[in-house]
Amino acid sequence: MLLAAFITPATAQDRLPPAPYAYQQLRDPAEEAKAKALMETLRCLVCQGQSIADSDAPLAGDMRHEVRTKIAAGESPDAIRKWLVARYGNWVSYDPPFDAATALLWLGPLLFLALGGWLAFGRFRRGEADGEGEA
Prior knowledge:
Blueprint: H1 2-10, H2 29-40, H3 58-72, H4 77-88, H5 103-134
Helix pairs in contact: 2-3
């Protein structure tokens, strides 16, 4: 009985049907192109390494549905991106804005590069000082 209690959640399935526009394209090719371009720049919150255009996760399908519905309603891609960022946070965007929460993300590589340069410079200087005493 204990084993069944642990296996049941693992075998649970999403029984809801997918949202209408999760796997169905918009009729207008120009609108679908705008939706596809936007979906390529949004990260799947489940897969994290894929865009919502490439992910098969149910949440990504729901997000694709929202994007296509809003594009069909005439909203701009920027407005949709802002709505998704407000709803899910900056993580949903592959290109997060520079602010206090993402400063380390943007400045971290520069800090590590500067630290590596400082350590290398110190090592080379110490190597020169050691080499002068041997001659």
